[in-house]
């Protein structure tokens, strides 16, 4: 399914990301299952093998080379979709304790079947982020929250920062059109503090990784309900 191992390794090496045959075989099985499943359930617009390798797998794995994720970290992927960025990260870092959260059950079902096909362990959570973040089992319980695209950064912070424990981090993979300053007010209101932008290139396409540290508890009124979030951005 994916380009041959040597070509894939060359592409990964050019971005400073290691790729061995074990990880490659798991990613190849992932890609094959994703494309087959996508024929019946719309999960991704990207189905070309080389584009899957670069835009899904390489982009996801750059996360662990651009940001520090502690050994054994508890991580939640908010709006997991087809599993990016978190599942490729877990395949490379099986020490991570991963929770996959999505509001659409059909995506959760895909991820559960993917875990059986590819071989990984995770918690699967069918819920809206704003609902799950109110539950004691999930509120401020994670070392890391991740998200890719999903929403504009101020809104994404409201969805994600309530999951992060004080001292943890929120990591957002974004395109070139946003600035971390756009979310400065939201970050401050939600208990975030030191934030950083990592600019990088994905085969000559500009990308950004926003890193937000959690420095204080999120006030209990956040996240607001979905109607309030849509009507007024922080």
Architecture overview:
By secondary structure, the protein is of the alpha/beta class. 39% of the residues lie in helices and 23% in strands. The chain is built from nine helices and seven strands. It has helices at residues 5-14, 21-38, 49-66, 86-92, 105-119, 129-132, 153-160, 184-189, 226-231; strands at residues 74-78, 97-102, 123-126, 142-148, 164-174, 192-202, 205-214. A seven-stranded mixed beta sheet has the order 3-2-1-4-5-7-6, with helices on both faces. Helix 7 (153-160) links the parallel strand 4 and strand 5 (164-174). Helix 2 packs antiparallel against helix 5 (105-119). The protein is globular, with a radius of gyration of 17 Å. The termini are far apart. The model has no long low-confidence stretch (mean pLDDT 97).
Query: Main β-sheet: number of strands, strand sense, barrel status?
Result: 7 strands, mixed
Q: What's the overall geometry?
A: globular
Assembly form of the protein: single chain
Structural class: alpha/beta
How many strands? 7
Radius of gyration: 17 Å
Low-confidence stretches: none
SSE pattern: HHHEHEHEHEHEHEEH
**Largest sheet, order of strands side by side?**
3-2-1-4-5-7-6
Strand content: 15-25%
**How far apart, in Å, are the first and last alpha carbons?**
43 Å
The helix tally amounts to: 9
* Helix proportion: 25-40%
């Amino acid at each position: 399914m994916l380009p041959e191992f040597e070509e894939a390794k060359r592409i990964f090496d050019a971005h400073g990301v290691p790729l061995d045959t074990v990880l490659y075989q798991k990613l190849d099985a992932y890609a094959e299952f994703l494309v087959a499943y996508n024929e019946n359930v719309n999960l991704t617009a990207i189905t070309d093998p080389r584009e899957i390798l670069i835009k899904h797998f390489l982009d996801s794995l750059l996360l662990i080379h651009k940001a520090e994720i502690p050994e054994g970290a508890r991580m939640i992927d908010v709006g997991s979709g087809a599993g990016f960025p978190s599942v490729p990260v877990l395949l490379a870092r099986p020490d991570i304790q991963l929770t996959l959260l999505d509001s659409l059950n059909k995506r959760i079902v895909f991820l559960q079947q993917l875990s059986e096909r590819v071989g990984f362990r995770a918690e699967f959570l069918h819920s809206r982020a704003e609902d799950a973040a109110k539950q004691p089992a999930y509120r401020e319980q994670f070392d890391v929250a991740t998200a890719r695209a999903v929403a504009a950064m101020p809104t994404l912070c409201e969805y994600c920062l309530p999951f992060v424990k004080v001292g943890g981090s929120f990591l957002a993979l974004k395109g070139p059109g946003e600035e971390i300053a756009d979310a400065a007010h939201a970050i401050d209101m939600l208990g975030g503090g030191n934030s950083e932008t990592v600019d990088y290139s994905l085969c000559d396409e500009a990308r950004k990784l926003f890193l937000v540290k959690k420095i204080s508890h999120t006030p209990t009124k956040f996240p607001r309900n979905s109607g309030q979030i849509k009507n007024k951005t922080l």
